[in-house]
Design a protein that fits this description.
TIM Barrel, binds S-adenosyl-L-homocysteine, three-stranded parallel beta sheet, 348 residues, alpha/beta
């Protein structure tokens, strides 16, 4: 790693990584971000890939302590898009030029495997060349296989935290880190491009936990990594906890870029929520993907994983133009192609 070596950054040893995870000195941080930018440029140039995000249901059977659409939150108005509604979002997305659709939702039992398969087949029929990404949580290996055969190519399933003790503090007993990791392995083996990821600044998180996240990513070698700050949602058990720090999140993005040079890393909506230029800063720290919202305007506010989420009042077309302008202002180049993983097949 010539980049890191020249900048005096040690991203191999635990001690070196811990030093960078906690690097508060602005010059040190800037050296880290610059190295990450160089690695990103070597892998993907200045291109930033667009994905159209469709938040199609906020019903969820899980009860994660951090999440605003958790089962026990009685204050959230629930919605689900119909299969036709989802297809309409795809139509709009296609018109706007997107070649990747991301279907994300809570773990909603109404969307049985059969229904998801039908929706995938319909999208695949209309758009044979587009990438279809699912982000609908944990299902059986057989379900993931059916979705893959029906046309899904990619799957986002953040591991949330790679440390067992920490995972237990963020989730009820019915959920387990082992199960989550097994899902990621299954998805990989089936042939999906897989996205893992974690939140920064969740309650009880230590630098050691963040180190575990980096080590886990190195082991799994996912194609995509979603990293965003934790943001409290008032009606959850963590509603009174502080939000994750912008700079800590940026450092984790940069370190992930250095460890996984070809990863597709989004500058997340959560990052844009805690700082007006958070997403741009994410790109400057090594991210190379944005996911403008394609969900119908009337449901945007209801997909409230956390408070004060941005862009809930904009039309899909506005999101597209706004993101494009922001990206160009920072001398990046919007790329609307499918944007598949460019690193070849990573060794298991
Ligand atoms: N049900 C799907 C999608 C979850 S929502 C799944 O299980 O994968 C997508 C991501 O939002 C989650 O993986 C989590 O990392 C993030 N998220 C949830 N609550 C959040 C909060 N309060 N602050 C920041 N990010 C949050």
């Amino acid at each position: 790693m010539a980049e890191t070596h020249a900048a005096g950054l040690d991203v191999t040893s635990d001690a070196g990584l811990l030093e960078l995870i906690g690097a508060e000195d602005p010059e040190r941080e800037e050296a880290l971000f610059a190295a990450a930018r160089n690695v990103r440029a070597a892998s993907y140039g200045q291109d930033v890939y667009f994905r159209g995000l469709i938040e199609f249901t906020n019903h969820c059977k899980n009860n994660c302590y951090y999440c605003g659409i958790r089962r026990d939150n009685r204050r959230v108005e629930r919605y689900r898009l119909s299969p036709e509604g989802i297809l309409n979002c795809c139509k709009m997305g296609d018109l706007l030029g997107y070649r990747t659709f991301v279907l994300q939702g809570g773990e909603d039992p109404w969307f049985t495997d059969d229904r998801i398969v039908e929706i995938l087949q319909a999208i695949r029929g209309e758009y044979p060349g587009h990438a279809i990404t699912l982000s609908i949580g944990e299902r059986s290996r057989e379900s993931y296989e059916r979705f893959f055969r029906a046309g899904a190519n990619r799957y986002l399933l953040r591991h949330e935290t790679a440390a067992e003790d920490h995972y237990r503090k963020l989730h009820p007993e019915s959920m387990s880190l082992r199960e989550r990791k097994q899902c990621l392995v299954n998805l990989r083996e089936i042939g999906y491009q897989v996205g893992a990821g974690f939140m920064v600044g969740t309650p009880f998180q230590t630098p050691g936990h963040l180190l575990a996240d980096l080590r886990f990513l190195q082991e799994l070698r996912p194609h995509m990594v979603g990293i965003g700050p934790f943001i409290p949602q008032a009606d959850t058990p963590f509603g009174g906890c502080p939000q994750g720090s912008l700079r800590q999140t940026l450092r984790m993005i940069a370190l992930t870029r250095l460890l996984l040079p070809h990863a597709l890393i989004p500058a997340t909506t959560a990052l844009g929520t805690i700082s007006p230029t958070g997403r741009e800063k994410g790109l400057m720290a090594g991210a190379n993907v944005v996911m403008p919202n394609l969900s119908p305007k009337n449901v945007r506010k209801l997909y409230a994983l956390y408070d004060n989420k941005i862009c809930t009042g904009d039309e899909a077309a506005e999101c597209r133009l706004c993101m494009e302008g922001r990206i160009r202002d920072f001398c990046f180049v919007p790329n609307l192609a499918r944007g598949d993983y460019a690193g070849g097949v990573p060794a298991p």
